[in-house]
Amino acid sequence: MVTAAEILSVAAFGEGRHAQAFPSFGSERTGAPVVSFCRIDDFEIRTREPVMEPDAVIVQDVTLIHQVDLFSGLSKDGYVLVNTSRDFDELGFGDFFSEFRPERLVTCPATELALELLGRPLPNAALLGGFAALTGQITMTAIDKAVRDRFAGPVGERNAAAAAAAFSFVTSKEEELARASSD
Amino acid sequence: MLRQIEGSRAVAETVALCRPEVVCAYPISPQTHIIEAVGAMVKAGDLTPCEFINVESEFAAMSVAIGASATGARAYTATASQGLLFMMEAVYNAAGLGLPIVMTLANRAIGAPINIWNDHSDAMAVRDSGWIQLFAETNQEAADLHVQAFRLAEELSVPVMVCMDGFILTHAVEGVDILDQSFVDSFLPPYEPRQVLDTSDPVSIGAMVGPEAFEEVRYLAHLRQLDALERIPLIAKEFAEATGRESGGLVRSYRTDDADIIIVALGSVLGTIKDAVDIRREAGERVGVVGITSFRPFPGRAVHEALSHARQVVIVEKAFSLGSGGVLSTDVAMAMQGTPLTLRTVIAGLGGRSITRRSLEKLIEAAGRDELEGLTFLDLDNGAVERERARMSATRRSGPSAENLLRDRGTVSSVKAKEEV
């Protein structure tokens, strides 16, 4: 997750924007619940407070849903991307998101895409591809470049492929939703 | 070149540009990434000639730095928190001997209870040691300060500590313009020691000094600190002229010209404070910020000039002296003697507690209404404190307070949080 936030910030930086990424200080050890933050702005980012009111939340480990208050501070206009092959109803989130905008909520099997394309359950790149598709706040080109900058050679290729696959997955889900709501 | 990198990486690369000849360190969070990166550069042959010494403790780290510096090598180390305390005796020795070692302090709280997060307790614990202490506001400044630190240390034969907020800066990834080698080489000439252990011209360093000269030795060290007050702004000016960046110096003011209220602070929290000040400015409040970069030596005159036109000064500190109050506040109060200024101390961000813009806005509003007491603890959970006080008075064997407070807190899940609303 720390790596994902960092790559996202590098992608935004690559697009000429100001970006700041940082982990929930001190807890970034394997196995512990980890929160990582990324701010993207057109102006210098001076604040050092954690992101208290996120515009978007990416949940990498869906099992945290019943342990941690993941969506604290998220407005009804916020974006939610959850790494799972299930949908929000199956996760027990029945009416939790009832007042949210449905086109801003998506689940994406990022770990499965990573297993398929990387051979390892590392969903970071896929989640960033999904994030780009969901929010449009960053281009897929910038994500692709930042992923390849981070991971050299074939590992970079495979991560970039996972990001692209998640981008397509989320894009088609969004298109499906748009068709359904216009029907 | 401007790059989007982790603060630790920016510092490590900048330290390498300073061509240290001996780097010795013991890993401790949140300093680890800096030392790992410098170590990797030495191992890869990117930083040469340089000896990287993995020592067995922080005491050894500073002892090796002292030995290296005394033989004329440019020496660098980094630590934090308990690590700094463990090397405390050697920290005083480095200053007492006048050895220009540069050390990064990745500021972190001091236990017990054990806490790896950021505050300024470690830096404050060595404020009287004779080290120069410079506080970085951003990762750009943290990187830049290291070049200035080596220059200052070696000009004056005084060790310099660059303080950067642990995790908040060390682990933050943001844009940092890394200097180029040719500039650093021109800015920082090769180390010319004032004293050196040399078998062809033997001297003793660190002999016993009795009452006949000890006070004079200390006074000379104080004079060197006062010299640093002259040198720090000049070095920062030279740096700014060459790079176009305002890094270092003694104090920096932000929107203080017509300010009734001025907030004073050290380090990275200044960024959040500036955001809060901008918002209160929009609401019509005349408020500004003074950031102190050089905590030791303390720039009393510069602080006086920066604050004397205000009505109220609020000092926001990430450390305090138990049983007394603010540490920085004491220095500010000394600088402001004889003025009618109202001084208020706010302790905030202990052990990594987030200092939020919203809390700072409320603080500024309270200051505007003259409601701040002499000493305030920002976002203190009074209920939790009262409950523990009650447990303590109810029973003798109330147990360890730290663990009681943790139990008092509990955890929250997404679904439960929704149900509670």
Concise synopsis of the structure shown:
Chain A is of the alpha/beta class. Chain A has 5 helices and 5 strands. In chain A, helix 1 packs across helix 4, helix 3 packs parallel to helix 5 and helix 4 runs antiparallel to helix 5.
Show the helix and strand layout.
The complex is a heterodimer of chains A (about 180) and B (about 425).
Chain A: H1 2-14, E1 18-23, E2 36-41, E3 56-59, E4 79-83, E5 105-108, H2 110-117, H3 124-135, H4 140-150, H5 153-182
Parallel strand pairs in A: 3-4, 4-5
Antiparallel strand pairs in A: 1-2
Helix pairs in contact in A: 1-3, 1-4, 2-3, 2-5, 3-4, 3-5, 4-5
Chain B: E1 2-6, H1 7-17, E2 22-25, H2 32-43, E3 51-54, H3 58-70, E4 75-79, H4 81-86, H5 88-96, E5 102-107, H6 121-125, E6 132-135, H7 139-156, E7 160-165, E8 173-177, H8 181-187, H9 214-243, E9 251-254, E10 261-265, H10 269-282, E11 287-292, E12 294-296, H11 300-307, E13 312-317, H12 328-335, E14 342-347, H13 357-368, E15 375-377, H14 382-394, H15 401-409, H16 414-420
Parallel strand pairs in B: 2-3, 2-4, 4-5, 5-7, 6-7, 10-11, 10-13, 13-14, 14-15
Antiparallel strand pairs in B: 1-8, 6-12, 9-11
> Quick one: CATH superfamily of the largest domain in chain B?
Thiamin diphosphate (ThDP)-binding fold, Pyr/PP domains
* Structural domain tally of chain B: 2
Please give the CATH class of the largest domain in chain B: Alpha Beta
Distance between the termini of chain A: 38 Å
Distance between the termini of chain B: 49 Å
Major sheet strand order of chain B: 3-2-4-5-7-6-12
Beta fraction of chain B: 15-25%
> What CATH architecture of chain A do you see?
3-Layer(aba) Sandwich
- Rg of Cα set of chain A: 16 Å
CATH topology of the largest domain in chain B: Rossmann fold
Strand content of chain A: 5-15%
Find the structural class of chain B using helix and strand composition. alpha/beta
Strand order of the largest sheet of chain A: 3-4-5
Shape of chain A: globular
The CATH homologous superfamily of chain A is called Pyruvate-ferredoxin oxidoreductase, PFOR, domain III
Outline of chain B, from the CA principal axes?
A: globular
- What's the level 1 CATH class of chain A? Alpha Beta
Low-confidence stretches of chain A: none
